[in-house]
Amino acid sequence: MDIALGTKVSGTFDDVVARTRGALSDQGFGILTEIDMQATLKAKLGEDMEKYLILGACNPQLAHRAVGVDRQIGLLLPCNVVVREDTSAEDSFYVEAMNPDVMVQVSDESGLEAVATEAATKLRAAISAL
């Protein structure tokens, strides 16, 4: 099992982030958190790295169903979506989302399978739209 669902896209970083936000929104996901890894590592450690943004995406209906099955599943929410620069090609970025099947594997709770399947379908649709 792959831990990520993803694709590679071209454009400017800001454009790819905006397109990713829009595609996620079209599938019912809101962005709860945003972590700019490049800025954080520079500020905290003085380290340089490529553009790397973590979006904490949440579909409220799916999250509600998941925590209804297993209250501890909140430890794996929201679903992280990463937009990161491909350092081998100009104006090229990877957009990757956590594979929801990870939730099922980690919890071993069969009741999460339907939620994970629906979440994966929506995330794949968002990624395909990019």
TrEMBL record:
Q: From what organism does this protein derive?
A: Rhodococcus globerulus
One of the Pfam families matching this protein, by short name: DUF302
Q: Which domain of life is it from?
A: Bacteria
**Residue stretches spanning the membrane:** none
Using the record's annotation, list all stretches that form the DUF302 domain.
35-100
Q: What is this protein called?
A: DUF302 domain-containing protein
Lineage, highest ranks first = Bacteria, Bacillati, Actinomycetota, Actinomycetes, Mycobacteriales
Q: SUPFAM superfamilies, per this entry?
A: TT1751-like
CDD domains this protein is in?
Answer: DUF302
